[in-house]
Amino acid sequence: MSPLPQKAVCVARNYRAHAQELGNPIPDEPVFFLKPPSAICPLEEPLVLPSWSNSVHHEIELAVLVKNRLSNASLEEVRAGLGPVAVALDLTARDIQQKLKEKGLPWEKAKAFDRALPLGPWIEGLDLDQPITLELKINGQTRQKGNTSQMIHSIFALAQEASRYFTLEPGDLLLTGTPEGVGPLAPGDQLELILADRWRYLTQVAHGR
Ligand code: ZN
């Protein structure tokens, strides 16, 4: 068992086509934000959409578990310090985020709410230097598909850069951005998340809010 996470460090706009679909410029350095432990929940439990948003978007992402403490880490320390991976959803209240962005305000309400980070089980042994495919199907249709070679900043580069600002503690998570195709979820939607063409997870959106 790994220690409980203290935080998830997430990155916005790490896939070019996703930045473009939301009309955002390609950032030249990673745009980080955090999710608290209260956002993390098991992927297989029904997804709960908050009542105060009319547009909660799915963002399928690769999550990486931090094994060793990383603070201002070298590339070697980062390579030794990251552990298994999992598939995750970075649920985003897009309508709320849009209002906050327009005012130049922080995104926490839109990104860090309760159960905003459904997380699948950890998978050992995947090579982080090789492209890892992520695919999200909703009601049987592929909505998002991409792989980690399409990232603007690599997994190791993200962890190294993040560790300059936030100490990554064992048990913490790094979320690495979403490929294009994000969109709103509706009550009753059936989701299938596929990691590396091999691990498949089913979940659904709850009917109540
Ligand atoms: Zn995201």
Automatic annotation (TrEMBL):
<protein>
    <recommendedName>
        <fullName>Fumarylacetoacetase-like C-terminal domain-containing protein</fullName>
    </recommendedName>
</protein>
<dbReference type="InterPro" id="IPR011234">
    <property type="entry name" value="Fumarylacetoacetase-like_C"/>
</dbReference>
<dbReference type="GO" id="GO:0046872">
    <property type="term" value="F:metal ion binding"/>
</dbReference>
<dbReference type="GO" id="GO:0018773">
    <property type="term" value="F:acetylpyruvate hydrolase activity"/>
</dbReference>
<feature type="domain" description="Fumarylacetoacetase-like C-terminal">
    <location>
        <begin position="7"/>
        <end position="193"/>
    </location>
</feature>
<keyword id="KW-0479">Metal-binding</keyword>
<dbReference type="Pfam" id="PF01557">
    <property type="entry name" value="FAA_hydrolase"/>
</dbReference>
<dbReference type="InterPro" id="IPR036663">
    <property type="entry name" value="Fumarylacetoacetase_C_sf"/>
</dbReference>
